[in-house]
Design goal:
Blueprint (H helix, E strand, L loop, with lengths): L8 E13 L3 E5 L4 E7 L1 E4 L2 E3 L9 E3 L2 E4 L7 E7 L10 E2 L2 E2 L7 E5 L8 E4 L5 E4 L5 E13 L1
Antiparallel strand pairs: 1-14, 2-11, 3-8, 4-7, 5-6, 9-10, 12-13
């Protein structure tokens, strides 16, 4: 007759629920002022950028003076100006909400999630119950069993 086998049997159970509501976000990039000019057969008193009166203002354009060098002949001329962003007063965050976003030249804003009916629960018997929320939410329920035989 064979000897009896002995083993330790260990079981672990864990249950979890994770509920997530996306946060609102905004990223703003301030654009600087720029000026360019090019041409041929043009005489010029070049324009450019004029320094602002205040450190929070954007530079402005001085258009310069341009005339055709030889009348009646071909010429080309191009001038461009991009007005930069002034620096606004400070932005205040209150209860996780920014009341007024800066009006910069490049702004990306993402709406936050809406919790709505988002909910999750776990019973003593490891039953997971999840209720969907609104846009920008997620609910994850997990039950893990681990069995170890030594």
């Amino acid at each position: 007759m064979a000897a009896p086998a002995h083993a330790d049997l260990i079981t672990k159970h864990s249950t979890s629920v994770q509920l997530t509501v996306d946060a609102a976000a905004s990223q703003a990039t301030r654009l600087g002022s720029s000026y360019s000019v090019s041409g041929s057969n043009v005489s010029a008193t070049l324009g450019g950028l004029t320094a602002p009166a205040s450190a929070t203002d954007a530079a402005t354009m001085n258009g310069g003076t341009y005339t055709q060098t030889t009348a009646g002949t071909d010429f080309n001329f191009s001038q461009s100006f991009t007005g930069g962003d002034a620096i606004p007063t400070g932005t205040t965050v209150s209860s996780g909400v920014v009341g007024t976003l800066p009006a910069f030249g490049n702004v990306t804003t993402t709406a936050g999630g809406v919790a709505g009916s988002l909910a999750g629960s776990i019973t003593s018997g490891h039953t997971v119950s999840l209720t969907a929320g609104g846009a920008g939410t997620s609910a994850t329920g997990q039950f893990v069993s681990e069995v170890t035989i030594k």
